[in-house]
Amino acid sequence: MLENITQAQLKAMTCDELTALSEEIREKITSTVFKNGGHLSSNLGMVELTVALHYVFDFPDDKLIFDVGHQCYTHKLLSGRYQNFDTLRQKGGLSGFPKREESLFDCYNTGHAGTSVSAALGIAKARDIKGENYNVIAVIGDGSFNNGLVYEAFNSLRLLNTNILLILNDNGMSIAPTVGSMHEYLEILSDDFAHNQKRERHAKIFERFGFKYDGVYDGNDLPVMIEKLKEVKERLKTESVILHIVTKKGKGYSFCEENPEATHGIAIPKSESVESEYSDVLGATLIDIAAKNPKITAVTAAMTSSLGLAGFFERYPTRSFDIGICEEHATILCAAMASCGLKPYYAVYSTFLQRSFDEIIIDICSQNLPVTLCIDRAGVSGADGETHQGVFDLSFLTMVPNLTIAVPKDVDEFKKFLYFSAQFDGPLAIRYPRAGRRVFSSSAPIELGKWEELVSGDGKYAVLACGERAITHALAAAEELYKKGIHIKVVNARFVKPLDDEMLSSMPEKYIVTIEDNVKLGGFGTMVDAFFADSDKIIKNIAFPDQFIPQGSVGELMDDYGVNGKAIVQAIKQYENR
Fold first, then answer.
1. Which CATH number covers residue 133?
2. Among residues of the chain, what percentage have pLDDT more than 70?
3. Residues 212, 258 within the same domain
4. Structural domain of residue 427, as residue ranges?
5. Does 355 qualify as catalytic in the annotation?
6. Whether 67 and 212 share a structural domain
7. What is the pLDDT of residue 436?
8. Which among 28, 81, 127, 249 is annotated as catalytic?
9. Is 228 marked active-site?
10. What confidence category does residue 491 fall into, taking pLDDT thresholds of 50, 70 and 90?
11. Residue 537 appears among annotated catalytic residues
12. 2 within some domain
C-alpha cells in the first residue's frame, strides 16, 4: 500500500485503510532506523498526525514546516520517497531532516529547534505579498516550545498580519523530558478539566499574541485529527490557530513508549573498537571534581544524558541545571553564576553552541569569566548532515578575546584538561568528538599553551595535528612515510589558542602541514599561517572546505574531503620533489 502511494490515492482512502497505512509506515520507519540509525521514538509518535495532514491539506502546494525536523520520516514516506527510504541518513541518500534540495514537499530546511514559527510567518507573508493562496502549517514539539525564538515570532504575528496554523505536538519530551514553566503551563492545558471555562481562561495567553487556541486533542487518534484539521483548514482563511495535540513518543512500539529518551536517536552499531565516549569521561570526571569543589555547577540545554551528565545531575541536583532548548539563556546563566564566584561547566554539542555566539563574546569573554564550554560532537558528526556537522566552532571561537581553546588528543588527555579547567581562572573551551577510539601512550602534563611532540623528525617536515582524529591520521602518515625513509615530526597541537609560540618559533622545519577536523577558514591552520606570515615556511593546511558538509559516516566524509593521512603523505611527497 505504501510503496507507490500518491497524494490522490491517500485522499481517497477510508479511515480503516489509513489506519492500516499508519501501521505500515511504523514498520518501515522502525526497520529502517534500526538499520541506518536515526530518530525513532519522535517519528513513531508523529505517524497519525502526519497522515492526517497529508489527507486534509494539499502538499506540496500547501507548505509544511517541521520544527527541528527530525520527526519528518512519515512525511518523506508519503511524498514519493519510499523507494529511496532505505538510503535514509546514508551518504548520497535521503536526509534525516527536511531538505528543499530533495523534494518540493520540503519547503524549508530545518535542523535546530525553535525556528518553525518564524519560518512559517515568513512564508505566509511571502504568499500574501505575491497574491498567492495556500496554507502554511508549522509543527512544533513542546521541547522546542521552550526556545525563546518562538516567542520573538509570536510577538510579531499581529505586526505581520498573516495567518498560519501552528500545531503544538505535546509529548512531554524533547530529547530528555521537557522542563520549564511553559511545559508546566502546557500540562495545565492538557489536564482533563471538569470545566472547559478553566481551560479557556488559561489559553488566553496565546490569544494575546493573535492566535486562536484550540486544544487539547489526541494526536494519535487518526479520525479525530482528520476532522479537527478539516475544521481548522477553514478557519485559516480568517485567523491564525494554535492546535494543541498530545501524542505518545514511540507510539506503537512498546519499548520506545517505555524508553522515549533512550530511543530518541538510534545509533548504527560500530565495528570499530571504541575505548570510551568523551561524554562518559566528562560526567565521571566532573563528579570527582565537584566532590572537592562545591562551586562546580553543570548546565545543559535539554541533553543531560546525551552529554554524559545524568550521573552528575543525580549526585548534585542542587548544582545541576537543564534549562531546556535555550542555548543562549544557558550561556548567560553560566556567565552570571561565574560572576558570583561559581565555576560553571556548560556542556553542549558544537552545532548548538553556534546559537550562543553573541553571549560567548559579550557575557562570558568580555567579562573574562571562568566558564568552561565542553563542546561535544566537534568536527564532522556524520549522518545528521549539514545542520549537525560541528566544523565551525574553532573558526568562530578563535576570534574571541580572552578565550582559551583546548583540543585533547584522546579521552585520557580530555580528563587532564578537565582537571586543568578546575584551576583555570578564565573562559575555556574544550572541543572533542563523540567517540574516543584510541588512547595514546604519550602523556605530557597540561601546561597552558604548550604542545606535545609525539614523533621526532629529521628537521625537514612537521605535521601539526589538532584533535584525536587529526592526530590518528598524522601518525598513520608518519608511519607510512617512515617506511619510505622520510622522517616527519608529529605534534599534538592541543591548544589552538594560545598557540605554542615557543615551539613554533624554534621549529627548524621549513615544510609544515596542519590538519584539523574543522573548516579551513578561521581554523587552527589559518592561525599557524598568520604566525608564520613573515617567514619562509611553506605551509599546507588540511581541513574541510568552505562549504556545508553533507551526511555520511565520519570516515567517508574525512576521505571525501581529503582530511586524512593520505593527504598528509601527498603533501610531504610534493615537498620532497621540490
1. 3.40.50.970
2. 90
3. yes
4. 282-436
5. yes
6. yes
7. 87
8. 249
9. no
10. very high
11. no
12. no
